[in-house]
Specification:
The chain is mainly α. It has helices spanning 5-35, 42-55, 57-79, 86-108, 121-142. It is 76% helix and 0% strand. Helix 1 packs across helix 3.
Length: 149
């Protein structure tokens, strides 16, 4: 049963990043709308967040899974060469993965940022912070081997 631990931890970190990333990006979009004078209330925030989780979440999650697969494999290899804590290495891998992914998505889609809430530096930093958190969670879930009875 121990072999399931790694894929489950991976899927949980991808789901965490996708959910947090979508929620954060939606809040950035709503804040921009509010700054432009659009009336937005708590009901709008909740409705838009739910709609984005359903509409954007699966596609963003698939892209995150591809990126995290590459980033976490690189982090695991890097851990063989450095003495940094696992959580730090995987957090950096998650943050860098998301930052690179946002840049690549913008380049692929002719300069248009696909994640609307990441059009600003603050939005990009927030997405990278979510990636760092997801990477740290992956490291925590996979860090020590469970005890055998």
């Amino acid at each position: 049963m121990g072999w399931l631990r790694l894929p489950i931890a991976f899927l949980l970190s991808v789901a965490l990043m996708a959910a947090l990333g979508v929620i954060v990006q939606t809040q950035f979009v709503i804040s921009a709308l509010k700054a432009a004078g659009a009336p937005t209330g708590l009901g709008d925030r909740i409705a838009m967040t739910g709609a984005d989780l359903i509409g954007l979440g699966p596609l963003y999650g698939a892209l995150i899974a591809i990126g995290f697969l590459i980033a976490f494999l690189a982090a695991a290899l890097l851990l063989r060469a450095v003495t940094l804590p696992r959580a730090v290495v995987f957090a950096v891998a998650g943050a860098v993965c998301i930052a690179v992914m946002l840049v690549l998505m913008r380049e692929v889609f002719f300069g248009v940022p696909v994640i609307a809430g990441a059009r600003t530096l603050a939005g990009q930093a927030a997405q990278a912070a979510c990636g760092a958190l997801a990477g740290a969670v992956f490291a925590m879930l996979t860090g020590s081997k469970p005890r055998q009875l």
